[in-house]
Amino acid sequence: MSRRKFCVSCGREDVELIGLLCPSCYAKRKDLIEVPSSVTIRTCRICGSKWISGKWVRIENLSIEDLVYNEIMRRAKMDDKLTEYQSDLQMSKDKNGKDVALISFSGKVANEVIHVQKLVYVNLEEALCDSCMKKRGRFYDAVVQLRTRNGSLNEKRVFFESFFSNEVINNLSDIKIGKEGVDYYFISRTVAKRLVSSIISMVKAEVKESFEGESLKNGKRTGKLVISLRL
């Protein structure tokens, strides 16, 4: 005589069991989805960069809802019996005016459809990213000194700045105009050197590199890179 299989919790018979439980009771007893109780979304108040996975990232067309969803899912833990799951998120405020995210999951445990909802508090913070903080403090690691061999300095400046990409613009911490020419101050010397390389690949120019405040530290030459670019 064969024994009937039944759930030790609800008594359902002839169902696919997970251990000694039917899928429904398994879902009730187990925390199928673990999410953080709260997440923090940090945005630069000046440039709009987002703090993602331990670094500042400039991403366009990414909403707060997208950031919250990505952060929750990055930290979420799923029971290995949950399959074919889908999720959706809605932002709102609780009775105290705090931002909350209601994330809804649907999936399957064995052949049974399961629905789970989780509430996550959202902390929205504004700060200054590293780049904007350096710009505010006029920090720089390289200077490109634009000079002219002949012709109008203004024309040379227009030509020089026509090579500016978003990366270049975001790395500028200051511009100083003097009698001899224009000095462009860059946060990153890599960006400054890449810009100059792009220009000299297109036109003939005199380029000289030197270091301001040069010193040796651990056997390496340190100081502000100065690139003289004469067009």
Walkthrough of the structure:
With 231 residues, this protein is an alpha+beta fold. It folds into two domains: 23-127, no CATH class; 138-230, no CATH class. 23% of the residues lie in helices and 42% in strands. The protein has six helices and 13 strands. The chain has helices spanning 23-29, 64-75, 130-136, 153-161, 166-171, 189-200, and strands at 33-34, 38-44, 50-52, 55-57, 77-78, 82-93, 99-109, 112-127, 142-147, 172-177, 182-186, 206-217, 220-230. The strands form four sheets. It has a five-stranded mixed β-sheet. Strands 2-8-7-6 form a four-stranded mixed β-sheet. A two-stranded antiparallel ribbon has the order 1-5. A hairpin with a 4-residue loop joins β10 (172-177) and β11. The longest helix is centred in the first third of the chain and has 12 residues, at 64-75. The mean pLDDT is 90. One of its GO terms (molecular function) is ribosomal large subunit binding. It holds the Pfam family NMD3. One of its GO terms (cellular component) is cytoplasm. Residues 7-231 form the Nmd3 N-terminal domain.
**Quaternary organisation of the protein chains:** single chain
| Count of individual helical segments | 6
Strand content: 35-45%
**Spatial strand sequence of the major β-sheet:** 10-11-9-13-12
Shape: elongated
Which regions contain 5 or more consecutive residues with pLDDT less than 50? none
- Number-wise, the strands total 13
Task: Provide mean pLDDT, rounded.
Answer: 90
Number of domains: 2
Question: How would you sum up the major sheet?
Answer: 5 strands, mixed
Cα Rg: 29 Å
Task: Output the structural class.
Answer: alpha+beta
Instruction: State the end-to-end CA separation.
Output: 97 Å
